[in-house]
Predict the structure.
Amino acid sequence: MISAFFIFSQKGEVLISRLYRTDFKRSIADVFRIQVISNSDVRSPIITLGSTSFFHVRINNLYVVAVTKNNANAALIFEYCYRFINICKSYFGKIDEESIKNNFVLIYELIDETIDFGYPQNSEIDTLKTYITTESITSAAIAPEESSKITSQATGATSWRRGDVKYKKNEAFVDVIETVNLSMSAKGTVLRADVDGHIQMRAYLSGTPECKFGLNDKLVIDKNERGISDAVELDDCRFHQCVRLDEFDATRTISFIPPDGEFELMRYRSTSNIKLPLRIIPTVTEIGTTQVSYAVTIKTNFNNKLSATNVVLRIPTPLNTTAVDCKVGSGKAKYVPGENVVVWKVPRIQGGQECTLSATAELTSTTHRQVWARPPIDVDFQVLMFTASGLIVRFLKVFEKSNYHSIKWVRYLTKASGSYQIRF
Amino acid sequence: MSTPGQDAKFFTRGKIEEFRTELQAAEAKDKKFVKRKTVLKKIVANITMGNDMSLLFTDVVQCLGTPLLEIKKMVYLFLVSYGRSKPDQIHLVIPNFLQDCNDRNPLIRALAIRTMSYIPIPVVTDALGDTLRHCLKDRDPYVRKTAAICVAKLYTADPRKAEKGGFVELLRGLLQDSNATVVSNAVAALTEIGDRQDGVMFKVNLSIAHRLLAALGESSEWGQIYILDSLLRYVPESHSDADLLAERIIVQLQHANSAVVLTTIKALLYFMNYMDDRKRIDYICKKMGPPLVTLLSSGPEVQYVALRNILLIIQRRPTVLKNDVKVFFCKYNDPIYVKLAKLEIMYRLARAENAKEVLAELQEYASEVDIDFVRKAVRSIGRLAIKVEAAADDCIQALLDLIDTGVTYVVQEAIIVIKDIFRRYPGKYEGIIPTLCEHLDVLDEPEARAAMIWILGQFADRIENADDLLDALLDNFLDESVEVQLSLLTAAVKLFIYKSKSETTKALVHKVLKWATEEVDNPDLRDRGFMYWRLLALNPAVAGEIVLAEKPPITTDSDRMDRGALDQLLLHTGTLGSIYHKNPETFIRNAVGRALVDSPALNPHSRAVLVHLAQPQLPTTVRVAGPGPVEPTTDQQHNPETPIPPPPATTSKPEPELPKSTSSPTEDDEAGDDGDDHAPPQAKSNDPYANLGGAFGGYVTDEPRPMGSGRNGDIDDLLF
């Protein structure tokens, strides 16, 4: 299990150092600094030296590091690091060197509560916030009854929710967010297209609400046993701790008592019948050894009531590019020499429209002619009220013993960031 | 903490004396204890920065009287950092601890025992004993779950004291607790103790297993992991027990936490060894595939863990992911460790039906920037040609195109794999040899040079100017690496056998033999030189038969790990061992090995390849009778005096095996086959050439691996 937990700044300064076991001294931090932070070519998130293993996750120039001396569960350690990052974000609004330094005492409290002797313990943010707070508390001030409530929640079957939540207006917001991954060959054939979806819920509901949630989904266990139906085929789904997995397995209904506030209800994956919101048609020609000409067209693939926003194309240019002359129909395009790309930003494209860019890159002549690797064009965008998988929420029912009326809102968003790639 | 986010200013180096004065000053007129809080924060910041604050011990513990929880926690943090080094002063705080242990507030009680048990010195553990016993029976579950972990801490500090005090039985008793969090922490503590070489064994019988499963649903995600992990301590006695447990846990595959998913998979794979219903096994395999793929949408670190595990799982249970090669295609911006792991899986999943797509991807990767990745991509193209006969033509064309780019490392890598392709498909592609010969000059790496020289020698009869080419390569014979020298020697002999009439070849072989036997220090090279010389002198015709004997066909079987080793490694799914594909006892000091345990339910094929752990001489544990399961007396215990011998080499690095006569490598990966229907692997070959078939030896050495050796290396000691 975890023997030591550290947070380092980018420069290698130790911001948090907690040794859970006596098998290490604090100087173990120096080993990590030498092996990872000052090493320009780190090729693994896990480094093992002798019997000692360092696990690290990088976030905003910080290194979140766990050290172990046994055959630790690697997945558990990384999941804990991710959770720690989320806890910090929730407590401080962000996680970076400044927020860690400004709250280091609180962070010690948090990591002492969420890891005991290297074993992760209850780390539900909602519960933690009931007893690890930024307020000063005198020991005498907490009534033992109050504490018992906290402890039974922290160890209980619904450790993610307090029982005494009250709202004047009971509301639940559901966001279905899909990230499209696309890899398209230079010939325009789809090599890979799939959707990573997650359903984010913000529940502002009083008491202990029992929720039931329905989708137009169909889980495909065996791809060869495909039936005919309009349901969306999900390859897999994963649920928040609060969802009753055995009930889902038996009846396919998603039933749960939600945590208070925002949480990720489920994640899913779909690979069939993916509707690609944008089609990119690039024509890139190398003219001799001194010029490359580009003609890139974006076509929308959704109805004209919807629109794609924040569309950003990153179009690679050869390493020896000196200047690029761009002409665009809409948006702005600019050559960024540091990254060897032309960045073309279009704030909004209405459904049914198309945009084009034409550009010419001037190259210097180089002594050794190395082949240009032609990295893919990368596209980022967002389309509201559209799901690439076709998934829709059929219903969300809330039952609570006080029988209050609740309002539910559902939004859909399909986006791409860093994984919608077109080769040319 | 009074106002969030203002503490960064405390990160400045401070002097002990200043802090002491400030603490003393704070004793008077300290409204709301603001002054004390400030000094303590400065001290904690200095501990963080690695400055020794232990001299402030007596001053800091004075603050324990302050009724502010925040101050108490900082003092406790100080005690956890320095208490161990102050055995003569620690008694000062014990009354405070004990008082807190009896506080009405359960959070305070838990905090007190948690902190005390972090200070593993006799004064503290003595004082902890009775209190801990009470806390294990506390009415509040939060205190009990904290106390459970305290037992593990106590056991680490002083195993005999913990045993004599009856704490292990108390811990076993907690397995029956009504609160799931308490149960799962008790499991974690018992596991910790059981994994020690001198610890009390933790075995799970069927009734305990059912109790644990009952707690599973209400446990936190971490608790679920501890419980699922402990299920591997239960050995099913009948197929139906294995079926039932698998059915109970299979829903956990849908959990959002990837560690829950991977640990569930570990338990399922384990139980499958004890099942006999093919349909059920197939069903479970099909259920495992999608969740494994979904792990690839987690953060890159978890993706990496998942990929390294998938690589093991698909070797043992190919049905799990047989149709999913596309999801393993690399994204351009994947971190390099993810890309390298995906590449290996793509190769494993490649079959005749998807070879075209896989090849297209590999070609794409071969033009990327990362040299290591490019080389592996090129090598994978060659391996693909060897694995999938139908794709060989296209792969060769792809390799020729790559050679044409003239990028030196690409050319070298290509030539290395082409050598193996020649052996896999004799008489089919030799036409490309002239193209290869054009690139002789760029080969500066031993492996590539050796490969090219092998090609020159082996096909010297088809290469018109082989003697000229070889002669040119001989220029620096004495400076070459041994690998190249050996291949030059053999190539020269082959050339001579092909063209024994020619005076130039005669002179050439004479020159090389003379060098090898007279000028070289390496005994292998010298011996081989003498052997050839005598062979040629005695009977050149027989020499020809020997040197140019027909070689056994090359296959890709050799890079599939053997079944017994896989069964054993899969017991470590999700852990470090599964990342490095090594059993933990081979690289982690004091790590306990695992092996499948025989039982009437064990699948006969698993039994046939069962890897046994070293048997212990004597049990060294103190036996305690408790409410828990009755324990058998001997097996599986490690005597701390006798180190576990390293397992056979097969577990860390697959050795090539004779190809199975009944199945070609491609069929081997075909649908439905998960190895259960196959006879256990045949004995290792005696054929010395079989090792040459391990064409991918170099590939294996690129694998992620721990640095240094944990068992006998000195690195461990450097870390202190």
